[in-house]
Design a protein that fits this description.
Blueprint lengths: L4 E2 L7 H5 L7 H14 L1 E5 L4 E3 L2 E3 L1 E2 L3 E8 L2 E8 L9 H12 L6 E4 L3 E5 L3 E3 H7 L4 H21 L13 E4 L2 E4 L13 H10 L2 H4 L11 H14 L2 H10 L8
Antiparallel strand pairs: 1-2, 2-6, 3-4, 5-6, 6-7, 7-9, 8-9, 10-11, 11-12
């Protein structure tokens, strides 16, 4: 059972130290607690698949640490900006997540401030772990991959480049209600979107991940796939996207 620590008792706890990490500073920590109260965060908790020293967290990266929290009575995910992050605030990432949400992609954005993003808590497995352990029917396996590629297509149409979908194992989570794209800290609207091309290349042209497909999805001919991705990159039409899906064996009847 998750043990949530109310904000008025957070100071001096393990979870409290990660709200201001890695360079803990008393004044900064107190200022961040005021931000959390203003956002409507009620409590914070440890727990998750990643570790910082001896503490378990939902996620960690170059920009932030992701913790569990309660927000206005709802369990949520809290991304706290690292004190050594290479950016002055979480504002831009939050706006990119908002744009992704408008395209039907990503965890739902709840609230944000200079140092925090509060968003939907996604319970599930990273795509790589899910693909390695999935024991259901092949058509269900293919539906998950198709759903992810359709989400990358939505991002392309929205003009938002995720920026890290070459790391396919860790930026997709297969949650209870379906697969989701996560972590928009490297996203940009100033680059030409490459979400579909980056994801397909990572899934089908990277030996590490393509080995996890285990015959559940037919391997496309490399030369044909490269040409189809080149065509899609040039015009980004529905027809060129469907061609890519078809070559990957992921074009369902609803296309």
């Amino acid at each position: 059972m998750t043990e949530y620590v109310p904000l008025d008792r957070l100071h001096g706890t393990g979870a409290g130290s990660l709200v201001c990490w890695p360079a803990y500073d008393e004044e900064t920590a107190l200022q961040r607690l005021r931000q959390l109260r203003g956002l409507g965060v009620e409590a914070v908790a440890l727990g998750g698949r990643h570790r910082i020293l001896t503490l378990r967290v939902l996620g960690k990266g170059h920009v932030g640490v992701v913790l569990r929290c309660t927000w206005r009575g709802v369990e949520a995910a809290l991304k706290a900006r690292r004190t050594d992050a290479d950016r002055p605030s979480m504002m831009e990432e939050a706006e990119h997540l908002r744009r992704a949400n408008e395209a039907g992609v990503g965890p739902r954005l709840y609230a944000f401030s200079r140092d925090f993003i509060v968003m939907e808590l996604l319970e599930g497995s990273y795509l790589g772990d899910w693909a390695r352990t999935f024991d259901g029917p092949d058509d269900e396996f293919r539906r998950v991959l198709e759903a992810l590629l359709r989400q990358t297509r939505s991002l392309d149409e929205a003009g938002l480049d995720h920026g890290e979908l070459t790391r396919v194992r860790r930026h997709f989570i297969v949650a209870v209600d379906g697969p989701r794209i996560v972590d928009f800290e490297s996203a940009s609207v100033n680059r030409r979107p490459q979400n579909v091309t980056a994801t397909v290349q990572s899934m089908f042209m990277n030996r590490g991940f393509s080995g996890l497909l285990g015959g559940r999805v037919p391997q496309p001919r490399r030369d044909e796939l490269i040409q189809a991705l080149s065509d899609y990159k040039r015009d980004m039409t529905d027809e060129s996207f469907s061609r890519v899906l078809g070559l990957c064996g992921l074009l369902s009847d609803r296309a």
